[in-house]
Amino acid sequence: MNSQNELIPSEIFETPQAILQTLNETRAQAKDAATRMKEYQPRRIFFIGNGTSFYSSLAASYTGRILASSTASPYVLAIPSGDFRYYMPQVDQHDVIVGMSASGEFRDVIAVFEQLENKCLRIGITHVANSRITQVSDATLVSSGGPSSVPVMTKTYASTLTAAHLLLLEFFDAPSEIYKNLEDSARLCETALQDIEARILSIVSDLQSYQHAFYFGAGIGYATALESALKMKEMAMLHAEGSEVWEYASGPATIVDQNFFCTAFYTDHPTDSDIANSAKFSRQWGARVIEIGPHSQAQDFHLPVQANNFEPFNSLSLVPPAALLAYRMARARGFNPDIPAWRERYYAQGMHHLIGKNQ
Questions:
Q1: Is 90 exceeded by the pLDDT of residue 356?
Q2: In what order do the strands lie in the sheet containing 44-49?
Q3: Where in the sequence is the domain holding 173, given as residue range(s)?
């Protein structure tokens, strides 16, 4: 299907190039910021953001966990920016706060940075040069891939997340093969998007009347599930929830039946066996099941995506297919995500900076 005249699909298909451009154009900024981080000898690195920017913060935190080489390494933790703002832990010069805001304007991130001026190192990650966050940060990473004006975050999720991964790779002195794995994410994403359009149309044909969905995964697959469920809500106006696979087994699984479809994310990690079990049980209980990744165990729908050798990078190739599915589902259900019906709800809450930009 031709996506050239559709804003959101066009940006989804631009994702691989956005990853590569960010790798090429933002690495020097990441190196400089990481050098400043090392000077502070941090014991904690807090990633904060809201919505999509929180889910990318969570995805980046897995890179920090894996690259930490000893108990003396700083702990990398993702916290929603509003929660961090109003329930802030004690912070000193041995803490680093990384604020994720694609628009560079999100109010809670800005408020945290203003409150912590001269108290710790503040690093902003944004997609918009000269935005507010660049003025209140001690160092800034600006992701690449071209401007975005769609109301639902698509390629900017991947580009800002790539910048966050770069920051941590530089800080933890990651070996060259891991940088190569990050570059491979663009190829894996492009291959997946080229191969799945016909499969997505078949899925949408069967599932467009459903009103409820559960998404689940483990580790980086959990962060992917949260972001992908958000895309289904924002675009298709369909109730969707993201869960960690073990939380899914003791929570959503209690009500899963023929009224739901479920989406499982695989990353070629040992936890895939738990994800496969939940997928197969969900199918037995009557739900339709979409599996995204290198495996398919439930014998229902499959969107094949090859796994990255460095597991935390998998969300860069898993989220775009899920976002494209959400867009096609929206159009089949009579919605146009390029002009979302929820604009006025954002205006009513004072979130004018999120409309026509990205958070």
A1: no
A2: 75-80, 44-49, 95-100, 121-126, 139-142
A3: 7-179
